[in-house]
Structures are given as C-alpha cells and as structure tokens.
Design goal:
Blueprint lengths: L2 E7 L1 H9 L1 E3 L10 H14 L8 E4 L16 E8 L6 E4 H8 L8 H8 L7 H5 L5 H5 L11 E5 L1 E3 L3 E8 L2
Antiparallel strand pairs: 1-4, 2-7, 3-6, 4-8, 5-6
Protein name: DUF3841 domain-containing protein
Pfam family, one: DUF3841
InterPro entries: DUF3841 (IPR024211)
Amino acid sequence: MPIYFTNQTIEVVNQLNKTGYLTGNAEFVDKDFLPAYKWMIEQMSKRLNHNGSYPIWVWTTKPNLQREGHFNRGTKAVCLTVEIPKNQILFSDFYAWHCVLNNGFCPMTEEEDTLFDEGRLTITKEQSWERIFDLAKLHSSEMWNNGDQVVQGVTPIIQKEQIVNIEYFIAK
C-alpha cells in the first residue's frame, strides 16, 4: 500500500488515542482560505467517498522537518507516516493549488492567461481550477513545467491503524 506523510500539531495524537481516527478541522484553516477549502471539499465529494469533513493534507514525499514553514516557530508537532489506499486520496499540484487559494485563473499557457485577462475565453476561473488534479497535463504545460512537481493530496479521514510511524518535532 502507498505511504504518505502528514504534519499535524501534537494535539492530534490525543485525538487519535481518544477517537481512533483523525479528520480535518475548520478551526485550523485561515479564514481567508475558507472559500478555497470549501471548493476542495466539494471536489472531494465529487471524486472520493467523502463525508463533507475538512481535508487532511498528505504529501507523497516526506517533508523536511528542519525547514521553516510547517507551523509557527516552537509549535510541538508530529509527522505521521500513513498507509492509505490511493483511491481514498485526491491528488493535486501544490503550486497550481495556489490559483485556487488566491482566487485566480489557472492557465496552461501565457497566451491563455492573457486571453483570460482580456475576457476572451469561455472557460471560467472555477473551471480552470479543476486542472490542478490533472498532474500529467500540468507538468507538460508551458506554465507549470518549470521544475519538480510537488504533489499533495487530501483525504477525509485517517484511521489509527493506517499510521505506520509518528515522528515528533518542534517547528523551526
């Protein structure tokens, strides 16, 4: 079974021990990003067997826990190594996801970006967001092929028995 990684605050260990599972929580979402998260929840409902909960973010490669940016400095956290069936994760491109987060158009070419700005395209901004899930098409496009692709995923739930390892760390 595939292995993924998710960074969480230390409190999730208590939740896991109490409930036996972990779900996403709106409390940890920046209010400016709530519309983007709600859109992602809709996508999860369309594409996964999803209960409407907030997403848990997972990564296909282990995050470098020595780097900044995972949490506020000094936060006690864990990196969970999890085994989850691929069909329970909705994968997307990390960089293209920022089009959704920033409420912007997700272009495939410079020309398309210009045409959208000029109002000369029939595709809507929201329709362009669906492109974040087409990893192969994005990676071969003019706009998104400028380096290593960073793949992220969302899943509605992680069961305690899916956790292979818990690594504790303090955010830098």
